[in-house]
Amino acid sequence: MTTTRQNVAELIGNTDLLKVQSLSNLTGCDIYVKCEFQNPGGSIKDRAALQMVKDAMESGDLKPGMTIVEGTAGNTGIGLALVAKALGFKMLTVMPSGQTPEKERMIALHGSELHLVDPCPFADDNHFYHTARRIAEQNDNYWWANQFENTSNMRAHYLHTGPEIWQQTDGKIDAIVSVCGTAGTIGGTSKYLKQQDSNIKCWLVDPDGSGIYHYLKQGTYQSSGSSFTEGIGIMRTVANFREANIDKAINLPDQDLVTVSRAVRDADGLVLGSSSALNLAGALMVAAKSGKGKTIVTFACDLGERSYSKLYNADFLKQKDIDENKESIETLFERYKASDDKAIVNV
Ligand SMILES: Cc1ncc(COP(=O)(O)O)c(C=O)c1O
């Protein structure tokens, strides 16, 4: 049945849950992805954008005629830009340079002003986060969304994404698996789902170059290596993360997400973005460690067209010393089954 909507923001949410047949057949588990690329801005961040704007309108912090400003790796900027248009606001996106040009283009296409800053550590005052904050502090007419500390972000997933998953699986779910950027997704869904059934396990998948895995293991933020993924990984504890109810954490390298991205592209017709492929690599690990018969849900946060110039660019991968033919998905699964359990952090 189709439904009539009044504006593009109303298209956000209610995404399908898709069984990934190839990985389900391989593992003997039911592995599902929540199709967040179905949101009108093409990513899971549309949900956070809409909830943050709605809550700020309701509280009176965001008033008609104001400009929304946000620091973002890109997808939140796209989401906020389309919500801003739909609800009558202007939008200024502050983004570090070096993210894929695909996202910069979409932000501009959605009518947002785009302010690029040089990438730098969080402690530097020129970091995109501080730049967005400063712009709002210096202009009464700007409202800063602040997706990291604004818990309307996780509320989007607590109020909607989590309940959708619960309903779509009829409550038969053993594990959720998620990467973490602002922690809105893992915060809201883990909180909701574990309130319904405390036996559901929540697994966090961290890329190289991020400090969350080490933080959950040893209490301090340290990272090793680097990752070409965007929008995920962090080196500090933010408000949305404090809401998360995490059981296990793993760290996986970019090589594995590349292997998984090719496998589901070729077998399932799913051309995923980098964080989504990492989510599925995480789901494969969960299946390897949990045994057959489990229902595992993760997120297709965006599609490959947003990662095209990195994840699907042979020259780029070569520079990173990543081989898309390094191993088959079957070999990866066997390797995960044989991998040391001590590498899994019990939170
Ligand atoms: C493609 C993609 N995947 C995952 C995430 C992480 O989601 P969250 O911020 O809810 O942790 C982001 C965040 O920007 C993203 O852009």
Automatic annotation (TrEMBL):
UniProt-listed Pfam families: PALP
Entry keyword set: Amino-acid biosynthesis, Pyridoxal phosphate, Transferase, Transit peptide
Transferase keyword on record: yes
Cell division among keywords: no
Alphabetical GO biological process terms: cysteine biosynthetic process from serine
Stored CDD domains: CBS_like (cd01561)
Pathway as given in its UniProt record: Amino-acid biosynthesis; L-cysteine biosynthesis; L-cysteine from L-serine: step 2/2
Cofactor dependence: pyridoxal 5'-phosphate
EC annotation from Swiss-Prot or TrEMBL: 2.5.1.47
Catalyzed reaction equations: O-acetyl-L-serine + hydrogen sulfide = L-cysteine + acetate
EC class name: transferase
Molecular function (Gene Ontology), one example: pyridoxal phosphate binding
Residue span, Tryptophan synthase beta chain-like PALP domain: 10-302
NCBIfam families: PRK10717.1 (NF007989)
Name by which UniProt lists this protein: cysteine synthase
